[in-house]
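Forum: Protein Structure Q&A
Topic: Joint prediction for protein chains with partners

I've read a bunch of threads here and the consensus seems to be that you should model interacting components together rather than docking separate models afterwards. I'd like to see that in practice. Below is the full input, 649 residues plus whatever partners are listed. Could one of the regulars post the assembled result?
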Amino acid sequence: MRYAGRDWLLFGATGLATLLVLSMLGIIIGVVLWQGAPVISAEFLTSAPTSDMTGGGILPAIYGTVLLTLLMTLAVVPVGVATAVYLTEYASPRSRLAGIVRAAVQNLAGVPSIVFGLFGLGFFVLFIGRGLDTALGASEPVWGKPAVLWSALTLAILTLPVVIVTTEEALRAVPNDLREAALALGATRFQTVLTVVLPNARGGILTGVVLAVSRGAGEVAPIIFTGAANFLPYLPTDLRDMFMHLGYHVYALATQSPNVDAARPMLFGTVLVLLTVSFSLNLIAVVIRSRSRAALRA
Amino acid sequence: MSPTESTNASAAGGVTPDSAARQSSAPPADGAASRSLTRKRRHGPAWHRVAEVAVRVMAASAVVSIVLIFAFVLREAVPIFWEQSDVRLVDLVSPRQWANYDAPMFIWQPVGGVAKMNIVPLFLGTLKVTLLSLLFAVPLAIGAAIFVSQFARRRVREIVKPAVELLAGIPSVVLGFFALMILATWVQDAFGLAYRLNALVAAMGLSLAVIPVIFTISEDALDAVPRQLKEASLALGARKWQTTLRVVLPAALPGIAAAVILGFGRAIGETMVVLMASGNAAVMAPFNPTSSARTVTATIASELGEVSQGDVHWRVLFLLGALLFTVTFVLNRIGVAIVARLHRKLTATSR
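Posted by a regular:
Agreed with the consensus. Here's the joint model:
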């Protein structure tokens, strides 16, 4: 249809809003690339911070972030996928229990990240950790102190909704004919899930995992009290060790550095690495999702 | 990762093996017979039965998590109501005239000689920063949602939507960093302010976190408005802008309201941006956008590390967390309920 007069006004106003949103994304990426790229070098990525974190590199932070998200993924994926399997394959469509589970998933997604931090401290560190210490008769805290394990478990709960929602969508996209064919051949429901439904939904499930990793790798508030360290002279090798983290490193450098101007290049370099990680993960998720959708359609 | 995605999934794809099986077996009597047959046929390795039980147990994870979160945050907070301490509970919420002050005042000053822990300035700080951020985010996000759903061609849509997803994927600590290092300087230069960090800078950074939430849900709602409504309006001779503003927008209004509510919830709970960019002084200046502000979330994040466990201050911080949990829980429930209702209504009219 042809636009005239106020049609153009509305078109222009809403188009301008869109343009502003896009340009903000562009400015963030541009500034971080421009100031951060010169800092990136092999040395920056593979050495530890030196001289009050104004020199050296960020290897411990990269290592800590990878370790943290790996542990988190190990914890969240089985539980999240099982919940989605229950919702799509076991619960009847009118099940009240499934309704309660879905409502809980939605609410969990809305819980502020700092509340997860309080919970991780109150539940994992103080309740479970101290409880273990008492049970084992430890004289000083072994489990009952901030550690990479507790941070990972806290983040696992935070990312649970991401895994459940994406997996549920992926399972629903598997055509019912496949399920019925398997059941007609005499497979039990669980055999059907294991050999037909899950393999056909693996692309979608992987998308959920990648999105959860991307979300988990960037969260800082939940790990401040549950395991992140400002600086560690060694790489963590034990579940009970504390760890350095890219996001926490950005926060610490930007707000607590004794010399902010000297730390500035380090800061931009770290942000660039963090942003690259989360963007590439999101990009991978988009690619996997579109591929698996195309495969299911074929 | 938004609540709507899951409501859409549950509302749209309501076909599970159960319902499919029921539809395909023609007479209902047969359905019962075939079900008992499958029960008899059930075999397979023993561990399958164990795994099936495990699936059902793990399905409770989300429910258990929500309950545990509330319980364990409260567990650290509630002893404040019976434990002996120097801090009076009324002073948490009502103003008090402290020594050397001329009038009763709301003061948050938990460290120092006399601990003053009035939580009112913190909630005002949160409200100031979040409302200010919505002032930026709401027009931009809804404007962009209207553009994408009503005007944009497919190719433009396929650029804008992933770009907004990318914006949503930026860790909040990076947004905080951006506000602190870049926006703060721009705002200071533009308005000639004495201090770099203030509520306005934090609100601008925060709006970057809120825009994707409001955009995604509003765009979903606008896109779900049935074609027939739009076409009927255009066929009656209404112009594009009339159709958009008087037919499409009102039809999607509940969804847009829900988007704003959920965005508000997200803004209240956001920690890193406000912690890094708001200046963090607990001043009582609710109507001055360029003064510093200390929010509930930033207070918890910056103070909990320096408090000894079981202290009154410790309990107050967990109490703040429990209040925050409650507020966002209620906002989230309202938002999700509106989206679900709108979705039912729109799918009903299009049939």
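The beta strands of chain B are 108-109, 116-117.
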